Amino acid sequence: MARRLAACAQVVAPISSTYWWAGEVQQAEEWLLLMKTTADRFEDLAACVRELHSYEVPEIVRFRSCRGHRTTWSGSGGRRSQSETSSADVAE
Fold it and tell me: Do the Cβ atoms of 27 and 17 come closer than 8 Å?
């Protein structure tokens, strides 16, 4: 959040994950991080996650807004306008 690459971050934890890694099925307790940003900041945000994450290959999934709303916080220092709805503010 200090880098202002996301307008909002939510941590969902703990979750139980089962996945393939290094040719074997792995199980782990993990934390799901949801971050809302604009399309022009997505690559910088993804690079920041890769830099700071403890995993060799963190999973980064991009969703586009299904409502067509655009975030305007990028020009306001991270503050949202009253007209924005958080459920639609996923990467454009």
Answer: yes
Interior CA angle at 63 toward 54 and 74, to 5°?
A: 85
* Six token digits for residue 44: 């910088």
Task: Write down all domains in the chain, each with its CATH number in brackets.
Answer: 8-88 (3.30.70.120)
Give 25's strand partners. Answer: 20
Separation between Cα atoms, residue 36 and residue 16, nearest integer Å: 23
pLDDT tens over the chain, length 92 residues: 899 999 999 999 899 999 999 999 999 999 999 999 999 999 999 999 999 999 999 999 998 877 655 555 555 555 554 444 444 444 43
